Amino acid sequence: MYKSELDKHIQNNSLSNSFIFFGESGFFIDMYTKVVTNIEDASVLTFYYDEYDFNSAKAHLSQGSLFGDRNVLIIKSEKKVDKKQLEVLIEFCEKNPDNIFVYAYYGSDHKSYAKGFSKTTAMSVRFFHPKDFEANNIVAQIAKEKNVTIDKYSISHLLLIHNGDIALACNELDKFRVYDKPISTKDIDNLVFGLAEVNIDEFVKKLLYKKDFKEDLYNMLEHGEDEIRVLTIITAYLTQLYMFNIYIRVNGTPNALEILGYPAPKFVVDEKAALSLKFKPHTYSKLHELLLESELKMKSSHVDKSAILLSTLIRVQKLL
């Protein structure tokens, strides 16, 4: 089924107690997982990705609660879980209506789950990326809940900066809560660094691959980019790479949702993972130290920020 059918079941209070959520929209998968598992005083067990253990999952759904609480099991994974195991977990829910089970699949093999559980009571739901008006309405509703005053034009601008990613746009709303005024597009430009700013992203990669970056830097500064902001973007990018580096060293393979907090396209994850491993932890430490010292210098009065920035970036490439 699709989102619209699930919405009708929610409105009519005719939901099942086991769900397979999949599709293109990680935001909707997360959102509806929260909706169907929002049970007061429930005993919740959540497995993230490589943590999943079938025996523990079975035990959680099969155990009775001393206090009459409901047992909720959530599995979030980019990897496919064995279908027979899922059927066993669904069967536990069919036998006990107090159980709730959600398998939130963030991978790309959508065909496996479209009709794979039609012989069970599980609701298998595919979520597509929301249309523009839908995304705008969701952000507007969440902004209202967070007491952020923002008009539809500013919301559209915020979504454009983040390539239509609702989760990222909604995360930005927390930055706006401290401002006791309506949020304008100018405020968004000043406060938000978006994924759509490909030029800066490409510039940072050029820098880290030790290519000539000077012409790109001059172009950005000529178009009004602030020197301190360029520096903080580079610092943030390196911090993200360091997180990839640590995660891969500990777990063997990268996991975007655990590292970044949101699903990312495979080519983005692969690129950042490969780049992150080019540098040793000691190098990351030296780079962060250099960048933070330079940012402090730039914030002093009567200094040539452009000169400090250029000097810093040349030193960055020498450390790589």
Descriptive notes:
The protein has 320 residues and is α/β, with parallel strands linked by helices. The chain folds into 3 domains: 125 residues, P-loop containing nucleotide triphosphate hydrolases (Rossmann fold), CATH 3.40.50.300; 60 residues, Helicase, Ruva Protein, domain 3 (Orthogonal Bundle); 122 residues, Zinc Finger, Delta Prime, domain 3 (Up-down Bundle), CATH 1.20.272. It contains 16 helices and 5 strands. It has a 5-stranded parallel β-sheet with strand order 2-3-4-1-5, sandwiched between helices. Helix 6 packs across helix 7, helix 12 packs antiparallel against helix 15 and helix 15 runs antiparallel to helix 16. The model has no long low-confidence stretch (mean pLDDT 86).
